[in-house]
Design a protein that fits this description.
By secondary structure, this protein is mainly alpha-helical. The chain is 78% helix and 0% strand. It has one domain.
């Protein structure tokens, strides 16, 4: 898997730069929203980042399940990388949401169902990092974080349906089908392109982090073997 990641790294890097450049050009070329004004441009970062937060956790859950089933290190590497990438996108989601919320709601934060469930997602990502670092045995760390990741996946449907199940300050889903779509017209193309750009960016970051984790583990294995030989 790591060799395959290396082959697509430069392709993803090029695609990331090109798609982000195209997306940002569309963002600053799009007209202001008649209600939100210029603040609508924040959503072109906020919405794609939120989608990538959920996609990262979905990938984490899949990799964790595969690790528990197959006990192959490559799935644990992918899971660990997904945690780091997902945490970054979730933090960006909350930060950009707060910046947008101040002019729109008059407050940086509200204990809204969507915001609170996203905060729980960030706590889950941070907790998985802390749990892995707290366990010295890498196999125990891999199993423990995989189990916790699968338990935490219950937060994903809560995040997705929070604006449907409860009356919240948060706007409806940006992509909810043609009949219910909350962003349309000239404002939609920038959002679509930025969403694609963030997916490519997330893939690139995932490749970089996976290769870094694999290299670190190989170095740690060599160091452990050297220390054991010295003590023998």
């Amino acid at each position: 898997m790591i060799k395959w990641f290396a082959k697509i790294q430069w392709f993803l890097a090029t695609a990331t730069v090109l798609s982000l450049a195209a997306g940002l050009w569309l963002v600053f070329s799009a007209p202001d929203d008649f209600q939100q004004g210029n603040a609508v441009r924040i959503l072109y970062v906020h919405v794609p980042a939120a989608k990538m937060s959920l996609l990262s956790y979905l990938l984490l859950s899949l990799a964790s399940a595969l690790y528990l089933w197959r006990r192959q290190e490559k799935w644990d590497i992918l899971a660990e990388a997904s945690v780091s990438v997902g945490a970054a996108f979730t933090a960006l989601t909350l930060l950009s949401g707060s910046i947008w919320g101040k002019p729109m709601w008059g407050a940086w934060w509200a204990w809204d169902a969507r915001l609170t469930s996203m905060l729980v997602l960030l706590i889950l990502f941070m907790g998985l990092m802390a749990l892995r670092n707290a366990l010295d045995d890498p196999h125990k760390a891999a199993r423990a974080t995989a189990v916790l990741a699968l338990i935490g996946a219950v937060d994903l449907p809560i995040i997705h349906f929070s604006v449907v199940w409860w009356r919240t300050l948060h706007q409806p889903p940006s992509f909810a089908g043609p009949a219910k779509q909350s962003i349309t017209g000239d404002l939609l193309p920038p959002l679509l392109v930025m969403s694609v750009a963030f997916v490519v960016l997330g893939g690139w970051l995932l490749v970089l982090k996976s290769r870094e984790i694999a290299a670190r583990r190989q170095w740690e294995a060599v160091e452990t073997e050297r220390l054991e030989q010295n003590h023998a």
